[in-house]
Write a structure and sequence with these properties.
globular; three-stranded antiparallel β-sheet; alpha+beta
């Protein structure tokens, strides 16, 4: 994905919909990531915060969020790079 067009994001989401490993929590997080990427006008690397991802994905508990976010990394959909600086957000790269 070189341009962040709606058609490309829909294609990405269609591919993820066919992955039998993914459940509703994975899909909610992917939706939140794609939503933020589209809003940021980005297609490869986006800036994220846990609170924003949890709000957009409607995930209310930290254990649920962490479990499924880590699985998206393990499945090869994203690469998460945390920021420990309070003035900088963490990044997520779409793989």
């Amino acid at each position: 994905m070189e341009t962040g067009s709606a058609a490309q994001w829909m294609s990405f989401l269609s591919l993820t919909a066919k992955d039998p490993r993914l459940n509703v929590w994975h899909v909610a997080l992917l939706y939140a990531l794609v939503h933020l990427a589209y809003m940021q006008g980005e297609c490869k690397v986006i800036r994220v915060s846990r609170s924003r991802l949890m709000a957009v994905s409607h995930i209310n508990t930290l254990p649920t969020y962490h479990k499924y976010f880590k699985q998206l990394q393990d499945f090869g959909y994203i690469k998460y790079t945390p920021s420990y600086h309070p003035g900088y957000r963490s990044t997520v790269e779409f793989l």
